[in-house]
Amino acid sequence: MNEFVEWGSLLNIVVFGLLVGAGVPAVYALGVRAVKNVGPRDDAGRLPLWRKAVAVLCFGVCVAVVLTGVVFIAAGGH
Questions:
Q1: Which residue ranges in the chain fall short of pLDDT 50?
Q2: CB 51 within 8 Å of CB 35
């Protein structure tokens, strides 16, 4: 049975699936949490700059991952 299973390739798929399947939603959740209404705000009710920066970074990473996947699939890299 071992000659039919490429264990190295299977491990690559599992690790990539965990990173994309759990990692990207976790980064997105961090971005949503950064802009959520809970937490310190200034007198005008605005978010601190560091929270905006964290949210932009998290959402940017998510967009980059999705676009990279679309380009990879469109280029025939399946």
A1: none
A2: yes
Q: Residue 2's pLDDT is what?
A: 66
Q: Is the pTM for the entire model greater than 0.85? A: no
Per-residue model confidence (pLDDT) at position 43: 72
Q: Are 55 and 28 in contact (CB under 8 A)?
A: no
DSSP class per residue in 23-61: IHHHHHHHHHHHHSS-S---TTSPPPHHHHHHHHHHHHH
Name the DSSP class of 17: H
Please give the single-letter amino acid code of residue 30.
L
The residue ranges of every structural domain in the chain are: 2-74
Amino acid identity, position 6: E
